[in-house]
Amino acid sequence: MDLDNHMATLIEHGIELPVTEPLPVFFLGHGSPMNAINDNVFSRNWHRLGEQLQPKPAAILCISAHWLTQGVTAVSSAEELQTIHDFGGFPQALFDVQYPVKGSRALVDAVKHCVNMVSIAEDADRGIDHGAWSVLVHVFPKADIPVVQLSIDYSQPADFHYALGQQLRALRRLGVLIIASGNLVHNLMKVAWEKLNEPVFGYEWALEADAKMKNFLLEKRHQPLIEWEKQGEAFRLAIPTPDHYYPMLYALGIQEEHDELTLFNEAAVGGSLTMTSFRLDYRL
């Protein structure tokens, strides 16, 4: 179904979301959960995203590396999303963070009407995981915009996630801000923990993979990013498992011809992680 038909279908079904100019799309490298409570260059840049965003979104769709499902793609359909502290070994201050946000029935319905390549399931028990709230506490600290999370069916290959992203494009024209949250380079097995708080430190292979990924992004060469397993040893080390990489493919699938891609937070941390992020802005 093309974009015009998607819009017509959504309007026909009376989806209660406003028709708007296309909102931006964000891919955010979220890194350590500690970024939720740290004041650093990454968190300050996230805060500026929210401060500068006009108009205010009617709802947020978040695709996080930390909601993986098997054999199904689901949306969170709870009226109130509980804050999930899905990690261990961090200070109590991080476990004390709450992001008391509402869900959105209208956005749940819109996602289900947009996507026709699979049947979207609803999960009324799912809360908001740290891949989402660790960035949202900075982007929208008031927690006053409804959020729906979309799961990643981890049994599906890369091209599935890219194609599903393409089917979400119409949401941008309904006041929905789409945020994909993961990391381009994410190898926890090789993290130099003693250097994790240094502002910039990356192994040679991590910097190589990040640089190649950024070039593909800026050149709008999506296929090599979809076929990341064919891109050599640096990519293999950068993506030992694709859980943090797949959210980026959703953002790429959403990208349209007139979107301008802007990189930010271009830094490696802990040797084997990159915080590289980008935004898509519709420019005619």
Structural summary, described in words:
This protein is of the alpha/beta class and 284 residues long. It is built from ten helices and twelve strands. The protein has a six-stranded mixed sheet, with helices on both faces. A hairpin with a 3-residue loop joins strand 10 (268-269) and strand 11 (273-274). The chain is globular, with a radius of gyration of 18 Å. It starts with a helix and ends with a strand. 48% of the residues are buried.
Shape: globular
> What is the helix tally?
10
Strand order of the largest sheet: 7-2-8-1-12-9
End-to-end CA span: 23 Å
- What fraction, in percent, of the residue positions are helical? 25-40%
- Low-pLDDT ranges: none
Largest sheet: 6 strands, mixed
Record field, number of beta strands: 12
Rg: 18 Å
Share in β-strands: 15-25%
Summarize the structure.
With 284 residues, the protein is an alpha/beta fold. It has helices at residues 3-12, 41-52, 92-95, 105-114, 130-139, 158-166, 204-218, 222-226, 233-238, 246-254; strands at residues 25-29, 59-69, 73-76, 80-81, 101-102, 120-123, 147-153, 176-182, 259-264, 268-269, 273-274, 277-282.
Topology:
Blueprint (H helix, E strand, L loop, with lengths): L2 H10 L12 E5 L11 H12 L6 E11 L3 E4 L3 E2 L10 H4 L5 E2 L2 H10 L5 E4 L6 H10 L7 E7 L4 H9 L9 E7 L21 H15 L3 H5 L6 H6 L7 H9 L4 E6 L3 E2 L3 E2 L2 E6 L2
Parallel strand pairs: 1-8, 2-7, 2-8, 3-6
Antiparallel strand pairs: 1-12, 4-5, 9-12, 10-11
